[in-house]
Amino acid sequence: MVSAVTVLATAAGPEPAAAGPMSVAASPLDWSLVDGTLPVVLRVLGLASLAFLLITRDRRWWTRWLPAALVLAALLTFLVKVIVNDWWQPFPDELPFEVLFWIGILLLALLLALFKLRFLRWRGRVGALFAALCVVLYASNQVNIYYDNFPTVRTMLGPQDTVSLKDATGTKEPVLEVPPGRTIEDVWRPPKDLPAKGTVSQTPIPGTKSGFKAQTAYVYLPPAYRASPRPLLPVLVLLPGQPGAPENWITSGELPTMMDAFAAEHRGLAPIVVVADNLGSPFDNPLCVDGKLGKVQTYLSEDVPNWVAAHLQAATDRAQWAISGLSNGGTCSLQTAVNAPQRYGRFIDISGEAEPSVGSHQQTVDSVFGGDEAAFRKVNPLDVMARQKFPDTAGVFVAGTEDSTYRPQAKVVYDAARKAGMDVRLMELPGAHNWSVWRPGLEKNLPWLARQTRLIP
What values do phi and psi take at 204, rounded to 5? Predict the structure, then answer.
């Protein structure tokens, strides 16, 4: 029987580990970049510095140089918009007005400092350059706040505290027996020396069969993986958005903190998470298909599971394997779930599209499928679900309440999944197409995933 549950999460998503006002005892690396004291300090310094750069007593400044800086900054901002949104198109979405505004402020500060150097002595010039730097930091962090990309200073430094996969996996251990009809937590008895936290390892996952040249993957192993007998834990394959890389889930997504918190609530139990690549490089978009940019579908449905089987002791039942991702990765997670249902029985599509796309529908068919509409329909999730039933597949669709582009598309695929016999639900979270939705979009669904994969009752 299909259950269709629509969930509207009215509470804000989880705050970063160091969110809120700066604590004297906290490390500067854990100061929040999105709320609390540091953004306020940057705002005060930025606005004061911008005022310093704007104001001078020289009449020529007001009649000649300031207008020139304003006009040139506006023209350069417009050029950025044209290059990024119309020519280069490295992102699936256009740069929004708010981001372009802060890019304009950044460019204006640099131009004001450059033009003002002629009116100042060396001390004043140093001050003007410092003021420009303050405005650049302020404007850059405003863009960061919009995307919620780096919640803390530490996340800007890349993945921290990784260990080698060999050290993380240890030796092969006897397997914990779980009787039919029971969950792992029902029979799990954690040893006294169980670590409090899991491990994160950086590792290549080669495209042995697909030939796909993937970016470096990351593997999270929960504390329970270090026990003997070892439980065969469910596996979550997690995908980044485009542009992006697997490490984004480790840094911006704060995955280790998220999973360790879940494990702490369940005596060390949590899914194994394999943060794999579906892009090839940060700006590529192979559409999660076996195409000219690589056989991504084969990579995710065969190479990644085969690698897990060869390197980890983990569950093998499709009902205990899930795939998830954000934006482009969300689209890919649904694609993989319907095109490789023999491998993945669960999915969490976070801010994904209604269909894989590199622009318009026709542009996608022409550029990726050689103009073959039938080839597109063969792998497009909406078409697959229209002709095939999935009574043994369960999933969640997540979208931001302020995401005017992807929220309507989430409703379309949710309805199609219901009609295809899936056990699905739709979750709407406060926020737009950014990490304020993507991070809690995974965290809030971990209990659902753990129950679906027979980890917990």
Answer: -75, 145
For 242, the token pair is: 């485009």
CB-count burial class (<10 Å; 0-12, 13-18, 19+) for 389: exposed
Phi-psi domain of 193 (left: phi exceeds 0; alpha: psi -120 through 50; beta: other)? alpha
> Nearest-CA neighbor of 255 among 65, 443, 36?
443
Tally of CB atoms within 10 A around 302: 17
Chain segment 362-419, per-residue pLDDT in tens = 988 988 898 999 999 999 999 999 999 999 999 999 999 999 999 999 999 999 999 9
pLDDT tens for each residue of 210-236: 999 999 999 999 999 999 999 999 999
Q: Do 312 and 441 fall within a single domain?
A: yes
Residue 451: CB atoms within 10 A of its CB come to 14
Same domain as 165, residue 143: no
Q: Which amino acid is at 108?
A: L
Question: What is the model's pLDDT at position 47?
Answer: 97
Q: How far apart are CA 195 and CA 413, in angstroms?
A: 41
DSSP 215: P
Same domain, 315 and 211: yes
Domain containing 65 equals 35-147
